[in-house]
């Protein structure tokens, strides 16, 4: 019982740690590669049964070529770098009422939880506003048209559909 809980907890913290490491490598070596950043190689690790052929062997090949001073056959990972990216660009988010500096920061902001929450909130308000406007504009028209008077039930149904 405790053993099982312990194993699960260990798996969880290991996963968390691996994610953290991945993020660190990505930020440190890929997002802002300085002159001292070493090349980073990606290995296909999703299938444990293929560990030797898809992880161990290519990894050893890379290390060996490094030791021998030749270029490895594998190509290092490169983050898609956008030349047009502007680090000081000015973005105003009307939804969050915030100013964001930098294209990358802006891209991150648009995907951020707080922004999406604001967006959701805003959409809900907007759709409420649209609904009230629709029902306001529909009711006078509905009264003006004498032809429709013969079928009040149908009109009611149409109104319901809109709301
Ligand atoms: Zn926003």
UniProtKB/TrEMBL annotation:
Region of interest (Disordered), residue spans: 122-163
One family name in Pfam for this protein: zf-C2H2_jaz
Compositional bias (Basic and acidic residues) spans?
A: 141-151
Q: What is this protein called?
A: tRNA isopentenyltransferase 1
Alphabetical list of SUPFAM superfamilies matching this protein: beta-beta-alpha zinc fingers
Domain of life from the UniProt record: Eukaryota
- Key words of the record: Metal-binding, Zinc, Zinc-finger
| Classification via InterPro entries | P-loop_NTPase, Znf_C2H2_jaz, Znf_C2H2_sf
Question: Gene encoding it?
Answer: TRIT1
Query: Where is each Zinc finger double-stranded RNA binding domain found?
Result: 91-115
Is Zinc-finger included in the keywords of this UniProt record? Answer: yes
Q: Does the keyword ATP-binding apply?
A: no
GO MF, any single term: zinc ion binding
Q: Where is the composition biased (Polar residues)?
A: 129-140
Q: Which organism is it from?
A: Saimiri boliviensis boliviensis
């Amino acid at each position: 019982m405790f053993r099982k809980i312990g194993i699960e907890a260990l798996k969880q913290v290991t996963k968390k740690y691996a994610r953290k490491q991945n993020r660190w490598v990505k930020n440190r070596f890929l997002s802002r590669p300085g002159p001292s950043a070493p090349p980073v190689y990606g290995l296909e690790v999703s299938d444990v049964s293929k560990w030797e052929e898809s992880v161990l062997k290519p990894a050893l090949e890379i290390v060996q070529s490094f030791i021998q001073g030749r270029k490895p056959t594998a190509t290092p990972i490169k983050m898609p770098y956008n030349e047009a990216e502007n680090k000081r660009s000015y973005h105003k988010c009307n939804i969050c009422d915030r100013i964001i500096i930098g294209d990358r920061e802006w891209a991150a902001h648009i995907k951020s939880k707080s922004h999406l929450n604001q967006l959701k909130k805003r959409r809900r308000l907007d759709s409420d506003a649209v609904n009230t406007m629709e029902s306001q504009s529909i009711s006078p028209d509905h009264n003006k048209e004498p032809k429709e008077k013969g079928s009040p039930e149908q009109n009611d149904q149409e109104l319901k559909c809109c709301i």
